[in-house]
Amino acid sequence: MVRWLSDDEQMTWQAFVRLRQRLDAAIAAGLARDGLSSADYELLVALSAAPDDCLRAKDLAAEVCWEKSRLSKHLSRMATRGLIDRRPVADDARGILVELTAAGRAALERAAPHHVELVRDIFIDSLTPAEAKAIRSLADKVVPEAERSTALDVKTKA
Questions:
Q1: 151 CA to centre of own chain
Q2: Cα three-residue angle 90-92-96, rounded to 5 degrees
Q3: Which of 77, 94, 104, 119 could form a disulfide with 100 if both were Cys (CB 3.0 to 4.6 A apart)?
Q4: Which stretches of the chain are assigned E, i.e. beta strand?
């Protein structure tokens, strides 16, 4: 039996969807001014945080919650632009290592200050400390449930 959303629950969900859509659009527009897509930035940040600026493709996909095919296609575009390099894993014929290049690091370092200022202007500075804490609390509750649901979905497909 479906537990339909009440009017109040529907308004809450729709408010969250609008928030996510508008934030995503504003962030994408800001990054585009620096020649990057949101996807580029997300992958560059993940690689820059990894030891030696390098991750196995499967670990990078897990880090950013992308499917293998989406990651592969996007990495091809980034490699063509010189932002990343891909090479086989030495002890795994099927594994691929993805490494941030000097050009990728430079692109990230060029975009990061503008990105942080935009995040501050449209998000952080709009919140009171109590609201910021409430968002962190919400994420602490919802993220594990979403991850659990995703893991169950993956197991069901396997």
A1: 18
A2: 75
A3: 104
A4: 54-56, 84-89, 92-100
Which residue in this structure is represented by tokens 């001014």?
33
| Token code pair at residue 10 | 């529907």
- What mean pLDDT, rounded, does the chain reach? 93
pLDDT, tens digit (0-9, with 9 covering 90-100), for 45-73: 999 999 999 999 999 999 999 999 999 99
Sheet containing strand 92-100, edge to edge, reads 54-56, 92-100, 84-89
The secondary structure of 12-65 as a DSSP string is: HHHHHHHHHHHHHHHHHHHHHTTT--HHHHHHHHHHHHSGGGEEEHHHHHHHHT
Q: Which band of pLDDT confidence, cut at 50, 70 and 90, is reported for residue 152?
A: low
Q: Which CATH number fits domain 13-111: 3.40.50.720, 1.10.10.10, 3.30.390.10, 3.60.140.10?
A: 1.10.10.10
